[in-house]
Amino acid sequence: MTNQQRPLKQYEWVMNDLKKQMDEGRLAPGDRLASVVDLAAQYNVGRSTIREALSALKAMGLLNIKQGGGTFVKAPPSEAGPVHPMQRYDDLWEGRAASLRHLLEVRRVLEAGCAALAAQQRTAEDLAVFEKLLEDMRQSEDEHFIEQADVKFHQQIAAATRNPLLLELMESLASKLHESMKDMRALWFYAERSSAERLLQEHIRIYEAIAGQDAKEASARMELHISKVEQVLNEKKAGDHHLRMT
């Protein structure tokens, strides 16, 4: 079976329709797209489907997504020769996936140890910060705000170790963490193996182990949290390879 013959996934259908509007001039460079919520209602699909379609279009160089400022149409990038849009998306994703995998390896080594030490050294003040961040993640519907709370949660674990060098190492990764959080959350949603609630539960379980001063469990839960993202990343890679082979 060829790629053209296989049924389109929902996000591909949305992506193709938005791209058609761009090609026909109904969406021009500089135009702002409707919100994820409005697009989901318009296409009668889930928000994760819209996010994946927008992510693909962004990877093609057709969208500019400003955190907290909306999503805007960009002028198509000039190319030396014709390249299928999905091939361009696949190539760009491969680079992003490799960087993400390297960062996850660093995070496994660094954060599993931080979680164990935080469980031994955490204070009541640390727990209050964790609880506030978890509540922010639970209550907010602003994806950028949730991503920020997510990064702060992981940085707070380093702070709770009472080791300034570990905190400095985590803070040095802050910008990379912000970017990777977007990809990580996208992986969970796009693979349809999780939801915002499930991600929240991952963080709650880590917090509970730290609050209970169980260093071994805190380390294990952090490692499991990161391993699950790696698993979805590997499954996506395998799925993309299968589609290119069919």
From TrEMBL:
Keywords recorded for this protein, A-Z: DNA-binding, Transcription, Transcription regulation
Domain HTH gntR-type intervals: 8-76
Gene3D superfamilies the record matches: GntR ligand-binding domain-like, Winged helix-like DNA-binding domain superfamily/Winged helix DNA-binding domain
Keyword Amino-acid biosynthesis: no
GO molecular function, a single term: DNA binding
Cited InterPro entries: GntR_C, TF_FadR/GntR_C, Tscrpt_reg_HTH_GntR, WH-like_DNA-bd_sf, WH_DNA-bd_sf
Highest taxon in the source lineage: Bacteria
Keyword flag Transcription: yes
Protein name: HTH-type transcriptional regulator LutR
Species in which this protein is naturally found: Paenibacillus albilobatus
Gene that specifies this protein: lutR
